[in-house]
Amino acid sequence: MMAKFQRFGGAMFTPVVFFVFSGIVVGLTSVFLNADIMGGIAAAGTPWTVFWTVVDTGGWTVFNNMEVLFVIGLPLGLADHGKERAALEAFVLYMTFNNFVNSILSMFGKTFGVNLASTSETSGLKVIAGVKTLDTGVVGAILIAAVVVYLHNKFFDKKLPDWLGVFQGSAFVAMIGFFAMLPMALIFCWGWPYFQRGVTNIQQFLTTAGDLGVFIYIFLEKALLPVGLHHFIYAPFQYGPAIVNGGTTLYWMKHITVFAASKQSLISLYPQGGFALQGLSNIFGVPGIAAAFYATAKPENRTKLLALIIPGVMTSVFAGITEPFDYTFLFIAPALFFLHAFLAACLATTMYVFGVTGEFCGGLIDFIAKNYIPMWANHWTTYVVQWAIGLVFMMIYFLIFRFLILKFDLPTPGRAEGVVNMFSKADFKAKQAAGKSDDGKQHSAFYDSAAAYVEFLGGVDNIASVTNCFTRLRVEVNDPQLVAPDQNFMAVGASGVVRKGTAVQVIVGTDVTNVREEVDDIMENGEGVTTTQTVHESQKVEVKDTATETTLFTPVKGQFMNLEDVPDDVFSKKMVGEGFAMNPEDGNIFAGVEGTVMTVFPTKHALGIHTENGAEVMIHLGLDTVELNGDPFDVKVKEGDQVHKDTPVATMDLKKVQAAGKNPVVLMIITNAADYMLGNFKINQGDVVNAEVPALEISKVKTK
């Protein structure tokens, strides 16, 4: 459960990363459009004003569409795979939800106490992507995104019957989600107005809680950082609705011009800003900690230590990123980290008591753009007080940390003999994971086919790009000579292969979207894929055709079947090639032809034989048995072996195949049948015959 919370916290960063730059743009444009600061150049109608008004409009894009950003961004961080498709599914279903809400309220608004026609800012309504709906803020967006991610992870890889293949993948998720959104919309129409009233009461309480509320908030936001739960603390405040509707970030941006023009104190204008002071410790706390590290380091290590702490301090001060210091505490002494959280809360609360408020969540660049530049003319005294208190706390940080490091001989960076180390979040996670076993990654039902396709395409290094259309995997390869024969692809489910230079199309069928997702994952991680050299070793086998005619014999004892009667469209429609099938009575499989074994598939469910007259024959054991990973099969030959009609090539455990819900039918397919003339079958449909009975004669077509 903790891992899920941490994963959610990481996903929150996906949309949040856009806020920093947008905030800087809005902060700067508020300055450039302020006539009190810029003078006559910022008067209405001037080219200067027109230009910066346009820029300001663009800067508001992120803040005006936060719900959409969160509903798209969270699936990118939370979906197990197919993240891009999960994001698209989330957007479609979120807008479906909003349209349901709009329709319900337009007809039954009075029943739920909501006036959809209201334009008041306190109406609890908002227009999102052109649809007027309940203003559920990012909370509603997160809830919808969570439902969609759940549906995506559960149903995206669901294998549907071939005749329903068009509804597979994202379409299937959207279908289920469509019906899930209707009751959710109804629940929100009924319950959200009550929630909004409750939030209003909480906002009033927190606003009046004053200094204690600020202290508790800042302490928890900092103290929960190691386990990734700090996102649950700051997100409702920063992005709404815990303290103000829309969150402190949006509220500050919307009122920045008004606050800048007012001569009233910032604390009276914006008391809610006490819950946006978590960045103060980045500026005044971390430098004090770094100074304590330097002062307590061994003299011979101080030069090396400076090379580490100076970049770290600059990153913290200017960008608000404190990872190297925060995670060092977790290695050396967790108590130091909680001391840091306590001092950060004391710092923020003290400043709040002295009237410091605003948007101080990041680093100095953020402070300057959103606070100092737009507010300086009328509120400079507040910032003088801020820096006076901050410098005092910097010294407090230094003295307390220095005392504790020396008192308890803590092994902070630079104190060990010849060892100077700063740690990262990755180090912390690695330490947490030490001694824990890896349960292994769970793959979808499409993984085996995808992995085989990657292998047969020459391995990860031979694939330049991958896209797909409705039924085909379209691949650009670096070296077409490394691509395996068509029968390899068809043995694992492909309907065929189209080649044109370095462009290769694998005809997968309606599963192509799911297969593509697994191919992308393999390309990214390179996992489970045999190297090119291993996969295509069989191509080094040299054979010479010694005849123009050959006979195919039954490879197993059983009932003879025409391909048209095989319950699989790939084979029955002869997409793979011509041939016949046997419904086996035992599991002893013979070569059934004179030739050379060219391919033994890793999953053991098929093998390829180059016959004496050049025909490429595939013996395929069962339908969809590639998913069984070779368990029911025992292959008796290897690539390069010479075989005859009576050569045992494999055994198949019929009970295991049937227990797995698979059809054990054995197929003998000529994958290059277009180059051969086929005679009439020597066995009638439905006849039960032994193995090694003549079934079909084939002759090579003479070319001019």
UniProtKB/TrEMBL annotation:
Record localization: Cell membrane
Membrane topology, from the record: Multi-pass membrane protein
The keyword Cytoplasm appears for this protein: no
Membrane-spanning segments: 12-33, 58-79, 91-109, 129-151, 172-195, 273-293, 305-321, 385-405
Primary localization: membrane
Domain annotation PTS EIIC type-1: ranges: 1-417
CDD domains: PTS_IIB_glc (cd00212)
Keywords noted in UniProt: Cell membrane, Kinase, Membrane, Phosphotransferase system, Sugar transport, Transferase, Transmembrane, Transmembrane helix, Transport
Active site location: C469
GO terms of biological process kind: phosphoenolpyruvate-dependent sugar phosphotransferase system
GO cellular component: plasma membrane
Superkingdom: Bacteria
InterPro entries associated with the record: Dup_hybrid_motif, Glu_permease_IIB, PTrfase_EIIB_Cys, PTS_EIIA_1_perm, PTS_EIIC, PTS_EIIC_1, PTS_Glucose_EIICBA, PTS_IIB_1
Domain PTS EIIA type-1: 568-672
NCBIfam families: EIIB_glc, PTBA, PTS-IIBC-alpha
The name this protein goes by in its record: PTS system, alpha-glucoside-specific IIBC subunit
Natural source organism: Lacticaseibacillus manihotivorans DSM 13343 = JCM 12514
